[in-house]
Amino acid sequence: MPPDPFVVFLEENHCNNRKLLAVLSDAAVRVEPHLEHFAAGNPDETWLPSVGKNGWALLTTDARIRYRANEKRAVKAHRVRMFYFSTNQLSGQQMAAAIEKALTAMRRMVARVEPPFCAAITRSGEVYLRVTFPAESQPGQA
Fold first, then answer.
1. Residue 131, SS3?
2. Residue ranges making up the domain that contains 42
3. What does the DSSP assignment read for 37-50?
């Protein structure tokens, strides 16, 4: 059987969230923690390319990534699949409960929606596609 294409990259602020890690582990989701690949405090635009290049699904609470020019450019250019919590006021336990409910929809979205995209995860575990980016034409194309 081929390896599961659904791999979650946990950004720095949550890569040590034990409750979140436990839910992902129980669901047999491979996790790539930020701090195993990058130093603490690295600007988002420096690690976003690796997330996209590796085909990982980013999990973050930083919804503003989709608005900041450098980060938005990195998401688009490197075809990042970004999932963010729609509220930044969740405890680790609440995030874990939301992810437990959201995993099926997240997997389905990764399989069906062409990257790059940004999707919100609600407190109740619903997943909503918020932003897709149109393919940019290459130089020399009409």
1. strand
2. 7-131
3. TS-TT--HHHHHHH
Kindly give the interhelix angle for 18-26 and 92-112, rounded to the nearest 10 degrees.
40
In a domain, 139, yes or no: no
Distance from C-alpha of 122 to C-alpha of 1, rounded to nearest angstrom? 32
pTM (two decimals) = 0.89
CATH code where residue 62 lies: 3.40.50
Q: What type of residue sits at position 44?
A: D
Average pLDDT of the chain, as a whole number? 89
| pLDDT(68) > 50 | yes
In a domain, 80, yes or no: yes
140 vs 136: CA distance, rounded Å: 12
How many Cα atoms sit within 13 Å of 53 on the Cβ side? 6
The percent of residues in the chain predicted with pLDDT above 70, rounded, is 91
| 142 within domain boundaries | no
- Domains held by the chain: number: 1
Q: What's 58's DSSP letter? A: E
Span 78-110, pLDDT tens digits? 999 999 998 888 898 999 999 999 999 999 999
